[in-house]
Here is the input.
Amino acid sequence: MARGFRGNRSKLIRMAYGAVDRAMAHAFIGRKQKKQQYRGLWTIRINAACRALDFKYSWLIDGMHKAGIELDRKQLAEMAVNDSAAFAKVVEAAKQAR
Here is the structure.
C-alpha cells in the first residue's frame, strides 16, 4: 500500500507501516470532511440567492419549515443556481409562512 510514496516511506518497512497508517487515518477523516464542505457550499449558495431577493437564509429555512416545504439544502442550492424562478417561488412561500 506504500507504493507511490516517496523516499524511505516506500522502501523501509517500519516507515512504510507508519506512513500507510497515517494515510488511512487522513483518508477516513477526509471522507467525513467532504460531506461537511458540501453542506457549507450549499448553504453559501442558498444564502447568496436569498440575499439577491432581499431575504435571509435563516428566514428561508424557518419559513420553509412553517410552510411545510420539504426540500433539502442540496436541492435548494441546485434550484438557486439553475432555476432562479422556482427558487423565487420557494422564497415567496417562505415569506408568506413567516
